Amino acid sequence: MKQALLCALLATAALLGCATPTPTVVATPPTGSGDLGVVVERAQGSLQVINTTSRQILGGIAGLGDLSHASVVYGRDGATAYVFGRDGALSKVNLLTHKTDARVQQSGNSIGGAISQDGSLVAAQNYQPGGIKVFDAKTLALVADIPAEYAPGKLSRVVGLADLPGKRFIYSLFDAGEIWIADLSGPGLPKITKFKDVGRQPYDALLTPNGRHYIAGLFGEDGLAMIDLWAPEPKVTRILGGYGRGQEPLPVFKMPHLRGWAVAGRLAYLPAIGRHEVLVVDTENWAEVGRIKVAGQPVFVIARPDGRQVWVNFAVPDYNRVQVIDTQTRQVIKTLEPGKAVLHMEFTPRGEAVWISSRDDNRVSVIATDSFETQTVLSADAPSGIFFSSRANRMGF
Amino acid sequence: MKQALLCALLATAALLGCATPTPTVVATPPTGSGDLGVVVERAQGSLQVINTTSRQILGGIAGLGDLSHASVVYGRDGATAYVFGRDGALSKVNLLTHKTDARVQQSGNSIGGAISQDGSLVAAQNYQPGGIKVFDAKTLALVADIPAEYAPGKLSRVVGLADLPGKRFIYSLFDAGEIWIADLSGPGLPKITKFKDVGRQPYDALLTPNGRHYIAGLFGEDGLAMIDLWAPEPKVTRILGGYGRGQEPLPVFKMPHLRGWAVAGRLAYLPAIGRHEVLVVDTENWAEVGRIKVAGQPVFVIARPDGRQVWVNFAVPDYNRVQVIDTQTRQVIKTLEPGKAVLHMEFTPRGEAVWISSRDDNRVSVIATDSFETQTVLSADAPSGIFFSSRANRMGF
Known about the structure:
The structure is a homodimer.
Chain A: H1 2-15, E1 36-41, E2 46-51, E3 56-61, E4 71-74, E5 80-84, E6 89-94, E7 99-105, E8 109-115, E9 121-128, E10 131-136, E11 142-147, E12 149-151, E13 154-155, E14 158-164, E15 168-173, E16 178-183, E17 191-195, E18 202-207, E19 213-218, E20 224-228, E21 236-239, E22 262-264, E23 267-271, E24 277-282, E25 287-293, E26 298-303, E27 309-314, E28 322-326, E29 331-336, E30 342-347, E31 353-358, E32 363-368, E33 374-379, E34 383-388
Antiparallel strand pairs in A: 1-2, 1-34, 2-3, 4-5, 5-6, 6-7, 8-9, 9-10, 10-11, 12-13, 14-15, 15-16, 16-17, 18-19, 19-20, 20-21, 22-23, 23-24, 24-25, 26-27, 27-28, 28-29, 30-31, 31-32, 32-33
């Protein structure tokens, strides 16, 4: 088996025109994919493959189309990544060969995707035509096309897609005010469970790290829609009614990404839409227990893997800054300025470093989370999302 | 960079005598290490390398010495594993080549090890001579030898070793009743912090998943020793005094493995020593909040990654059974008999399956955690510990 793998690699290497090695040279042993990741170069539609141990760029994968709002999920092996382009293209790329192994133009306008718990199915959430499409993770062959038809002939844009245990996906219908669960575990057609009247215009959602609570933000009204998926009969309840948005509507410069919400221990930290605040919420009763003043309108609010810190970036005009909250004192303990137009932050799996993309400075900064020292700065063309292979191990990503 | 890597692989493949491929054949792309793992074959001192996606054995790594109480930690790449043998040998193996890349006979009697947060240092905890030794993770060159000398000329056996953020390790001194932290972040000698009089005979310990609480079980008295490592000035406090052990001493057929203790949400589930019970403890105040009757003396009590289930195996004579606790109802919902002498259980990273070793039936069972159906049974020689590469991403493992 080992030899078969290496011979397969040999074939690949031969295709690339490597010089024939002298047989007496013992090569460096191959390394795994656990410390690999990609940085999205949104303007030119490419990825940079990076290594978080050597803190280097290993090479690029180009020709992936419009990556202006791209997201990435990982197969179970951690070297296979699925890239969802804004233009509706779904690409399967390999972080070891830097090649695109499969690609399908699956819709006209897509906003991300998810991968099933067992890694066998990849789902894309689409604006145009509204619905989700599910693909075989190996071949990208279409397995199911599930239009979000909420009234005769009316298709809703789909947001907030996440995987649930088993071959299930949960997602929100922006135009319908509904949440659906598609179950693809059976042999026949997908089984759809619909939650209606969840609130107006769910615009994004998150799944808590344990997969228990699905929470959709509502653009059309104050509060959020929550489902306890472990309840014997799950139903939608409203939480955080009047948490700020409706109180005195403020201009919103950029919608927060709910998937970035931080759950640290028993508490969740979430961006207050339009306000310079991070809300602190008790996940046992979903009541607000505090607010933390920050430097701008928060976009991503992400916990370091151990939950001891929460890092926040901001909408324009404060998007050159990143702030760090200590979760024990609930104080901002550090303000960083890693570069212009910070779009995303990704922690290494055990949290010793965070990678931050600064789009308008064309760079990615690697920062130690204990000393806040910048360890490395890498060049990338208009970098946006950063996605490490450790996401393969997590639900709701 | 990509080409350099492949050429290196080509060299390796050439050494193995692969047939020269025809250049027109496009090889199967290489896959990552995210779904790899090892099964310890304790009697013959070997590992079986397995894949959790294909549920297959890929090959073996032999010649690792006495693996009768072996444990394994992973480098950041997920393909490099460090094997701590009972005979004091430390081996660095590669899950892609199935080769041993480095090996050192570092002590006379060892009981496991840990890897630093940044992956640069590997530490072994030793009984003989008592202390820890720290090695360069790349070369296995000795970096620091730290004898556990608690009184002039007296060395303690070391147990309960775990990594802390930064280049730090925490461990317990069985013979001294002390807990030490070794900090190797500075340029000079390791800085040692000592906690004295923690209780008699700490025999094993665990670090909570967030790295905040270190808890040592005490063999010599009732209760456990706990340190809140996030406190401004960490100190030892006693928890769960009189939790059972001292009440009416019972014969203990096998000491529970504390590192297997389950933390699911706010609650921790832990084996009651000598009793047929699992204790439920609130991690906010470390008070006991319940007990669950189980089929025998629990050894490993491990939460499924989402915390919705806790799986338990048992000491002799009940070690053919495995029980599943539902954490919402705190009831045993399933009793399984996967084979004789169940020694270990390991969940896939997203929890859809669990791998269980049955030593005396020479097999490893792969069981779905939703339906409890056995998906695959693999043959292995007297299998004990099972360690998946996803451990690379976790603290305290």
